[in-house]
Amino acid sequence: MTLKEVLLSIFLLFLSLCVQGQIENDSIEIKPIKDTIQTKLSPKYTKVELDSIMQAKLSIKPETSPIQKDLKINNLKLYHSPTRATLYSLLPGLGQIYNKQAWKVPIIYAAEGAVAYFAITNYKGAQKFKTEYKLRANGIEEGRNPDYENYPDQSILNIYYAYQKNFELSIMGGALVYVFNLVDAMVYAHLFDYDISPNLSLNLSPYCLPSIYSSPTVGLSMRFNLK
């Protein structure tokens, strides 16, 4: 065998090995990356089961901590405005309704009604005695009230001043009731969300202390519970 034939035989052998290796590489089954990863991670589950598990994990939302829940509740909580309550009280009683204290409305209107009644009564009385005094001061007989014939002029003037003073006091009383209506609505609106603990209380209870030297001591004890 010549050298040329030996080299040709080696070349053909090398070529056949390369062709055989290429065929074996082509015959290898290429699996999807996703299936390979899923098989390595959990070979006991099927593809459908793995997909359902992944979807379930993605659908789970992280739990909200209690602090975050409190913050969300506080943010959603409606703010009770003292300014709004005061403006509503320009119409007496409306601010109390805004503060959820509708039971105060009849009290406010009863006070205003009583003050208005006294103001009207005193005003009429003052005008009546004022007219009587003017007629007497000008010497006019016509129009005088016969019920006041025995009253001296100074008494008529004093009664007029008394009615006039009471009328002014009634006006002041009505203004105070109106201001109280405004202040009450504004103050309670500030305290609307104020939490008063039920443990803040005053307890009174009787007690009896026995004694071997004298009669038992009886009294009343006072106890404060503060939180």
Helix-strand blueprint:
Elements: H1 3-27, H2 33-41, H3 47-59, H4 66-76, H5 82-88, H6 94-98, H7 104-137, H8 153-190, E1 201-209, E2 217-225
Antiparallel strand pairs: 1-2
Question: In words, what does this structure look like?
Answer:
The protein has 227 residues and is mainly alpha-helical. It is 63% helix and 8% strand. It contains eight helices and two strands. The protein has helices spanning 3-27, 33-41, 47-59, 66-76, 82-88, 94-98, 104-137, 153-190; strands at residues 201-209, 217-225. It has a two-stranded antiparallel sheet. The longest helix is centred in the last third of the chain and has 38 residues, at 153-190. It is elongated, with a radius of gyration of 50 Å. The N and C termini lie far apart (113 Å).
What summary fits the major beta sheet? 2 strands, antiparallel
Question: Which blocks of ≥5 consecutive residues have pLDDT under 50?
Answer: 23-42
Apparent shape: elongated
Order of helices and strands: HHHHHHHHEE
**Tally of individual helices:** 8
Short key terms for the protein model shown above:
227 residues; 63% helix; mainly alpha
Short description:
This protein has eight helices and two strands. The protein is mainly alpha-helical and 227 residues long. The longest helix is centred in the C-terminal third of the chain and has 38 residues, at 153-190.
